[in-house]
Design brief:
This protein is mainly α. It contains six helices and no strands. Helix 2 packs across helix 3, helix 2 crosses helix 4 and helix 4 crosses helix 5.
C-alpha cells in the first residue's frame, strides 16, 4: 500500500455517501447486462458452457454499465465522445472488480450461471461492497466520479 493511500482520510461521511451513490449506479448498469445474459441462458436452456456464459455475462455487464454511465453523462451536458471516455476512464476498474465479484459469488453458491432468489441479493451485495473502497479513494484523491 502506498503512503498516498494511507494518507487518505477514510472517515468522510460525505465522500462515502457520494461514492456509494456512484457505486450503486455502476452496479445497476453492470447488473442489467450480467443478469440479462444469465437469465437468457437459464430461460432458453441453450446448452452453453457455464464458464462461457459467465464470461459473456461479465462482458455484457461492462457494456451496459458503460452505456448507462455514458447516457447519464450526456444528460449532464457532456459531448458523446467525452462522456464515453469519462465512463471508461473513471470506473472501468470498478466495473471489472464488481463483475468478477458478482460472478464469483454466483459460481461459489450455485455452481455458476444460475439466478435465484437467494443468490441475486448476495451477488448485488458483494458487487456493491467490492469496488466501494476504490471508488471512495478515487473520489477522495482526485475528486473523480461519473455521477
Amino acid at each position: 500500500m502506498s503512503s498516498e493511500t494511507l494518507n487518505i482520510k477514510w472517515n468522510c461521511k460525505h465522500t462515502w455517501k457520494k461514492s456509494s451513490k456512484n457505486t450503486a449506479w455502476c452496479l445497476l448498469g453492470c447488473s442489467i447486462g450480467d443478469f440479462g445474459t444469465i437469465l437468457f441462458f437459464q430461460l432458453t436452456g441453450i446448452p452453453f458452457p457455464v464458464l462461457s456464459i459467465m464470461v459473456l455475462a461479465i462482458i455484457n455487464g461492462l457494456i451496459t454499465s458503460i452505456a448507462l454511465e455514458t447516457i447519464i453523462l450526456i444528460k449532464q451536458n457532456f459531448r458523446f465522445i467525452n462522456a464515453i471516455k469519462t465512463a471508461f476512464g473513471m470506473s472501468f476498474i470498478s466495473m471489472i472488480s464488481m463483475e468478477i465479484a458478482m460472478n464469483l459469488t454466483d459460481y461459489l453458491i450455485t455452481g455458476g450461471a444460475i439466478l435465484n432468489l437467494y443468490v441475486v441479493p448476495l451477488m448485488l451485495l458483494v458487487g456493491f461492497i467490492t469496488p466501494l473502497p476504490y471508488n471512495y479513494y478515487k473520489l477522495k484523491k482526485y475528486n473523480i466520479s461519473c455521477h
